[in-house]
Amino acid sequence: MPEREQKKKPAPKERVEETAEVEAPAKQGEKIKEELDDLLDEIDSVLEENAEEFVRNYVQKGGE
Amino acid sequence: MAVPKVCGIETEYGVALRGAADANPVLASSMLINGYVEHRKIGWDFDDESPGRDARGFAREGAAPPEVETHLVNTVLTNGARYYVDHAHPEYSTPECADALELVCADKAGERVLARSMQAARRILPEGQEIVVYKNNSDGKGNSYGTHENYLVDRSVPFASLVRHLLPWFVTRQVFTGAGKLGAENGANPVAFQISQRADFFEEEVGLETTLQRPIVNTRDEPHADPQKYRRLHVIAGDANLCEIATYLKVGTTAIVLALIEDDFVDKDLSVVGPVAAMRVVSHDPTCRAPIELADGGTCTAVELQWEFLRLAQKYFDETGFEACGGETVGRDVLHRWEAVLGALERDPSTLDGRLDWVTKLNLLRAYVERDRLSWDDSKLSLLDLQYHDIRPDRSLYERLVRAGKVERLVEEADVTTAMTEPPSTTRAFFRGRCLARWPDAIVAANWDSLILDVGSDPLRRIPMLEPLRGSRAMVEALFEECTTPAELVARLAS
Predict the structure, then answer these.
(1) Contact between B162 and B262 (Cβ < 8 Å)
(2) Contact B165, B364 (CB under 8 A)
């Protein structure tokens, strides 16, 4: 059976401007990534040393 | 009519003692709480605790109920929160809140309490040692610890009805509640990156367990309120979020869906085939396009099923209003944001950077992969994954992104600071917090639904607090102004 018809999304109601904000910049993903690139140097400076050992040593007991 | 969706979040933080040869996580967790709390710690009143009671109405056979650890460090804060050691983790349970926005603030205040606890512990630890906590749900090696939501639910709703509608809800809401992680665990199929920290750990559809064979719908029947009128839905199928929008949507939408179920507003069967497997399918697909099978035929994506829930919520809002879901302002805002996020997930999930944790983390990892030409199993990426959740302000990668203006916030930092010590005005947490701030030496023990006071003469007095919305600022502030001693307060309450 093909995808059901009622699985269509409902028509947007109000607040057109907010929907538009998400829709409009098709390149938003790329732009965000470029900006993130500029942040990487800063993040490098706070990253823990010896990534492999650090991650290996992070062992938790289960909880809940 | 649905009961008000009073809500709270309990977070078990990951904890590491750095620079010590033999790290004891219980000791480290205790040190955090002891370091933070300068006044005498408040005991927990275990009298009415019943974590082994099952909402389906039966007791478990052949197994002991979950252990209640009555001897571990515990306290209650003036903001109405509980801060304690649970198993081998520091746990912070927010005070009861009346809506999702209030809870975002209370949950963020919890992060700040943990950060301050780490600072305090550093002062008493030997040189070179440090306790570090992480707000995540997995160590990447098969061990998981929880972030649980709690919602007030009408007792008269058949539990089977909650289970039927909540299974597809929890399977699909991951697309915005996930905190993201590298790799798979617990025997799940290998994957480079997945949406949820928790999906791999669910093995049953319904059950009482929280530590093994975890169920998607947890049946713990411990209302912490009038048991004739209420349930407390204990949700264990969620991730710890740092992004405020993610917490807001997680709580705001779930509160609405619970109201829909209570008012019998879900007019079709949205059940999915094999929810446990579907949970992993959804989590393992960061494109959000994987089909899941529906019980009454056909397939759809998680986002398409979410549109169904949204359509019902919009209809409910138009016909009933959102009185039960924190009021119209928050309810309307949740609806709009929910709709915008679903649309963005369909078009291009990466545009939700700074709003959803899993997208924010994935974009960060992708940027590193590209710049440093890393493979997806590089340990540097695992470090980024972990350190995203670091709660120390100077080390947290999430906080770096906030400071760079990459993250959309919902609450003012000044309000978060206030929420570290001040209770929400809207619930019984106000009464609990005010009592504690006013007469700390008179409070012998507390629970969500009681306070035990020593008023100077035998016996101890136990104040029941079975109505989560009674004890708000509007109801009791004048009382606090009029009473000068706890004995007066008890006398006034009894009259």
Answers:
(1) no
(2) no
Do B81 and B89 meet the contact criterion of CB atoms below 8 Å apart? no
Q: What is the distance between the alpha carbons of residues B217 and B236, in angstroms, rounded to a whole number?
A: 7
**Does residue B14 contact residue B111 with C-beta atoms inside 8 Å?**
no
Q: Where are the domains of chain B?
A: 7-416, 425-494
Residue of A nearest to B14 (CA): A60
What is the percent of chain B with per-residue pLDDT over 90, rounded to a whole number?
Answer: 87
Catalytic residue among B22, B47, B54, B86, which? B86
Q: Which residues of A touch B387 (CB under 8 A)?
A: 46-48
Contacts of B302 in chain A (CB under 8 A): none
Class of domain B7-416: alpha beta
pLDDT band at A14 (very low <50, low <70, confident <90, very high): very low
Is residue B66 within 8 A of residue B211, CB to CB? The reply is yes
> Would the pLDDT of B100 be above 50?
yes
Structure tokens, B181: 């992680």
Q: Which residues pair with B300 in a beta bridge?
A: B292
Tell me the count of A-B CB pairs closer than 8 A: 166
Q: pLDDT for B413-452, tens place per residue?
A: 999 999 999 999 999 999 999 999 999 999 999 999 999 9
Q: What is the reported pLDDT for B155?
A: 96
B340 touches chain A (CB under 8 A): yes
B263 is catalytic: no
pTM tops 0.90, yes or no = yes
**List of residues 6+ apart from A16 with CB closer than 8 A:** none
CA torsion sign, B325 to B326 to B330 to B332?
Answer: positive
